[in-house]
Write the structure tokens for this entry.
Amino acid sequence: MFRFPRLYAAEDMGSQAEKHPKFIGSPQVPETGWNRLWELFDRDEMKNYPEELINIWKSTLVAGIVGMMYGGIPAARHARTRYIEQSQAEIYRNRLEAVRLAQDAAIRGFVRYGWRWSWRVAAFVTIFNTISTGLSVYRDQNLLRYYSVAGAITGGVFRMSLGLGGFVAGTVIGAIMGIPAGALIVAAQKANGETLREKKRRERQETYKLKLEEWRARLDVTEGLVHEIADSELVENDLEKLEELLKLPRNPGSSVQEES
């Protein structure tokens, strides 16, 4: 009788299956400040930018509009009044032409001085929010001193052209004004139930749990595939050994006994 060959490859494959595959990385939560800062420039699965970056863009747009209105409306009134005062001796063909020229002067004043205020206010708010958001994300905290630091840096930058005295004065005033501005921002966030940092920490924990479950499921599937491959390779090796034994020449003694 023929005996099936004994193979011991299953033990080796079993020991290899216990090890986690190298190409499946474990989920990780960003623990360092630089990793959290790097997340600000990464899109999520829906190709959306982080909420902090969107808030900076929105505040910049609103600041530009507010600056345009703040500088443009008074300038338009002043330009219209000045044009009327300086054109008393001019002769117009009709009343409509006089009104149109006065409105044109008002529009020019609105655009000229509105743009000057618009880009300054937008730049100030952008620098302030960028620095305060960067500090909050790096430290993973939402403290008033971060807004004070942001106000000091922004005020110093905008007053740098006035010399050392202007730089110091702008830094001090910006640091003082940054505290109430930060308190207002934090209060507005807490009015929604939680601050932005608390919301991000909660979302990171939820995302981490989901990725951990997915990672474990992938490991289970991979281990099952490894066992199936090991079993299929074991059966193929047994069949190959059996075919090799069947192809061997038969023993002459056994053939003589069969004939007798």
Remarks:
- The mean pLDDT is 76.
- DSSP finds eight helices and no strands in the chain.
- The first helix runs from residue 9 to 17.
